[in-house]
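Hi support team,

I submitted a single chain yesterday and got back a structure, but I'm not sure I'm reading the token output correctly. Could someone confirm the output below corresponds to the sequence I sent? I've pasted both exactly as they appear in my results page.

Thanks,
R.
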Amino acid sequence: MQGTMVDLIDVLEEERRRRKLDSNAFSKLLGISYCDYSRMKNRRRRPSLNTLIHIRRYLPHLKRHVDAYMAQGNGDTIQKGE
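Hi R., thanks for writing in. Yes, this is the structure output for that exact sequence:
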């Protein structure tokens, strides 16, 4: 697990397929618009700090992937307990 944006997007797409959700339903689960998710998925937009916090909170099994992404200097730090 390297923690790049590509790694994070790959993990999110894996989760989307595992849940058998389309991109629109998955974007709602992440708390972002379909448009923003599409841009993220196509590597044209980085996930916002709020999106990362939401992923950590509502998809806790993906927390280590978000943390690896953050550890690479991709965004601000998340407060302990978020």
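A quick pointer for reading it: The radius of gyration is 12 Å. Let us know if anything else looks off.

Best,
Support desk
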